[in-house]
Every structure is written in structure tokens, then in C-alpha cells.
UniProtKB/TrEMBL annotation, chain B:
InterPro entries assigned to the protein according to its UniProt record, in alphabetical order: DHS-like_NAD/FAD-binding_dom (IPR029035), ETF_a/b_N (IPR014730), ETF_a/FixB (IPR001308), ETF_alpha_N (IPR033947), ETF_asu_C (IPR014731), ETF_asu_C_CS (IPR018206), Rossmann-like_a/b/a_fold (IPR014729)
CDD domains attached to this UniProt entry: ETF_alpha
GO MF annotations in UniProt: electron transfer activity; flavin adenine dinucleotide binding
Chain segments annotated as transmembrane: none
Family as reported in the entry's similarity comment: Belongs to the ETF alpha-subunit/FixB family.
Domain Electron transfer flavoprotein alpha/beta-subunit N-terminal: 3-181
Organism this protein belongs to: Halocynthiibacter styelae
Protein name (record): Electron transfer flavoprotein subunit alpha
Amino acid sequence: MVSGVAPDFEEKHAMKVLVPVKRVIDYNVKVRVKADGSGVDLANVKMSMNPFDEIAVEQAIRLKEAGKAEEVVAVSIGVKQAQETLRTALAMGADRAILVIAADDVHQDIEPLAVAKTLKAIVDEEQPGLVLAGKQAIDNDMNATGQMLSALLGWSQGAFASELDIDGDNAVVTREVDGGLQTIKVKMPTVVTVDLRLNEPRYASLPNIMKAKKKPLDEKTAADYGVDVSPRLEIVSTTEPEARKAGEIVGSVDELVAKLKEAGAI
Amino acid sequence: MAVLLLAEVAGGELSVDATAKALTAAKAMGDVTVLCAGAGCGGAAEAAAKLDGVSKVLCADDAAYGNGLAEPMADLLVSLAGDYEHIVAPATSSAKNILPRAAALLDVMVISDVSAVVDANTFERPIYAGNAIQTVKSSDAKKIVSVRTSTFDAAGEGGSAAVEAVAAAGNAGLSEWVEDKVAESDRPELTSAGVVVSGGRGVGSEEDFALIEKLADKLNAAVGASRAAVDSGYAPNDWQVGQTGKVVAPDLYVAIGISGAIQHLAGMKDSKIIVAINKDEEAPIFQVADYGLVADLFAAVPELTEKL
């Protein structure tokens, strides 16, 4: 490398990575619909970081460990309790966190559009070179926030990434698509949403959990960013899906074949 | 009300099944214009014009749309959005990439994976991996909706809509296509197959997945896999059935060596007949199976393949 170029290069490419994380009902908890149909019961239920967001946090930390990122900032937009989710991100290795309080009631879900608008305001302030987001939250299953943020920023997007390679002004993203895999090259800065097979997130060690308590966590409100978080979708009702009845246990392959023929399935 | 349906176009060809199913949902919202976008999409547009209930087909033929890149595709939708109250697409990985981007540009919410249309503004959609069904009513001026195709019947043929060329909306060049790694297969496509045979962690290896494939071929079925099998490297990602994989609802679903995690059930529980083969009689898959066989799959699956 020509002398004199290196510092500029470093300055430009030792980027900040922003990782939005969502507090959701734990992956292993059985979901119960509230009797009044207003939603799913989240009171006194174990909550965790959205599993896809864990993968995003892990990827950001790996970029930092590889010298491709200088700082990892975790953001959560929701209720005050999302502070715990941010502490998890900090314990995994994020450097600092921003909590944007946008609701008081744990049952109020902030829609992806409002989340994307808030994140845009934070991106304008923080100027990250990369936003790494989970591809969907396992509560509303909307699969939208990353794409929406990318649109609002006018950036490129690499959705459903199973591989990510950042190389200077571009990133090569391998995406999980219906027919297999698609590889695209996107201009930096970019928004990448991560799929399941990008990495396996680490567990936070006890010393790191202790350390995370001292890492900076800024508390803001949606109003601080001038974002209206009122929902565009009114929840009319929430119901249990039609339950499927267990059928019968057959004793042998022959019996199975006979039953399937009887049912006209084969 | 005017509805713009973004057709699923792959390699210049119309994915008829996905588009025809989304068309059924779109017709419940209003008068449907289909948009085919691609590099050389004339054939797709002609195929779309034949679908029953299509008023008009728009054909946006431009190199920028050849690989479904989200940025130019979303810009195209936005350029056409003025004439429509609804923009609809089948909930494919392509549409899930594009629609939220278009929605944000239009300052409206996206309504993903709709499983029923209550009225033009009100939709049912599964949340929490299908463990709850939510009915939502949109207050946005435009409704951007992706449709879970497994819950709608495909619209038939018999239409003869006019095809009209529309101008491309430019390409800011934010991203470029590098390559597609698409598995070539003579088997039916997973999301539209009448029979699906899926293997799980119990299959144990990539080599032994051949057992699943042999049974599938005997039944002229598509092959699926649980997330555990895909994560373990036994099967490719595009075979994954479940909350974050593909959602299928075939006439017959055969789950082999699959325990039946909620995540997997979300992707197959609307199948008409479910068969489960698992050596663990406590496996949750038996709670949704019409016919369960508690057996070692390495003995039962070859026997079943032979006796069918």
C-alpha cells in the first residue's frame, strides 16, 4: 500500500456497526393467546433476544474481532424492559447500547415501519457503515424492518444473508432464497438482514455478563427522534389456530400403506 | 378498488402456481392488474394474461429486473403505485425482499404472509410461527400485502387480458447480481407439490437422506427437511420447511425422523394428511399426524418405498 493512503483507508473502513435487537417471547415458551383476543399473553413469560438478532450481534462482533469494524452499537426500540436484551448484546461483546422507549405496555408491539423510522434517525446520528439486523422477529413474523430501514436511508440491502464478506466499498452477500442461494454485491453503507445459517451465536460468559453492566447504555424515547410510533394496523382479534387432532398410531408399514390407500392419499 | 399484483417471475418465466394463488387473494381485494418485471418478461406476461380474473397485465422489460434485485424492483412498484390501492405479491423470498422496501418508500406498513382476506382492508395472518392468528385492519392509504400461497387455491386459466408495456423506473446501481446457485431437480417444486416427504435430524447424515429421496421419487413428491436437518448439513437450505423456511400444504406430508418442533409444524400443519415415522413415541409430531408409525426409519422407510 502506498504510504499516506493507509490512514485514510483505515479511517474510512474501520466502521461502526449498528445492530437492532428485539425483546421477544423466548423461543422455547409455549405461546398462549389472551382470552380477550387482544394478543398473546406476555405477562410473567420468559423473554429473550430475538434469535435472528443474536446472529446479527454475533456477526457484528466477529467483524470487530476481524478488524473490519471498530465499534458495535446495539439498539432496541420498545419497552423499558428491553434494557435486559441490550445487556445481553453487551455481554456478547457489543460496545454500547441505545434504548429507545416507545411503549409502556409490554403487549404493545412497535410496528416495523416505526422501528425503521427510529433506526433511520439513529443512523443519521451515529453514521454506521453497516446495519446488521435479524431477518424477522419471531413474534410478529413480519420480516420487514431491515428492508424498510434500507429504503428510508436510500441504501442497498442484502436480505436473508447466510454469508457476508465485506471488502472495502462493497459487501458480497449470499442470500437464502426459495430456489437455493443467490449472491449479490452491494454498495456500502448497507443494511444486511441475517438468516439462520450465517453463524452460531456465542454464549455470554459470566465475567462478560458482569462487565456488560458497566458498559454505556443510553436511554431515549421515540419522541427524542421525532418519530410517531402509532400503529398503522389495528389488531381486530387474535385467536388460537384451529387445532389439529392427533390421528392413530399404526402397527406396521403394511397397515400404514392400507390406511393411506383407504384415505385415497396414494 | 384497483389491485396491482406483482407476479413471481424467475428466469423470465412466470411461476404460475405462486402467482395464481396470490391472484385468488388479490381478487378478493379488487380489480387486478398483474405486473411482470424481468429481463425479457414477454412470455411471463402472456402467461399471466391467461389467468382467470386478470384485467390487465403490465410488462416491465429491463435488464435491471432480471435478477429480482430489491432496490430497482421496489422503485418500479413505487413508480406505478399511484394508480392502485393495493400492491399484492405471493410471499416468496423475492417478494419478502421487495415489498417492505416499497412499503417504506410509500410510508405505509407491509402486511406479510396473509392467510385470509376478510375485506379489502382487513386481513388474517399467522404470528408466533402460526401459534396465533391475528386479524389486522389497515388504516394506510395503500395496502402492501404478501400472500401465504399455501392457504389459497390457484386461480384457473381462461382469461385473455391485454398486455401493456410499462417504462422501467431506473436503477440506482446500489447492488448487482453475482450468481444464483439453484439446485436443478426433476422433482416437483416444494411449495406446490401434492406430496412432500421430509427428513429430520433422525436421518442422521447427508448420505442417508437418499432414503428420503427414494421414497419421495416413488411418490412423485418434493423433498423437504426440518431446520435441524438443514443446520446439520444433511439437506440444502431451500428444502427447509418451517416458520423461517417454506410453508407447504400438500395433500400428503410424510415426516420422517422429525420430532415436530413448533418451528417445523408452522410450515406443514395445514397439510391434508400427515404421516409421521419416528422411533420416539413421545415425539410431538405424533400429536398432529393422522397416521403415526413408531419405528426405526432405517427399516421402515425402505420397506414403505418398496410396498408403495
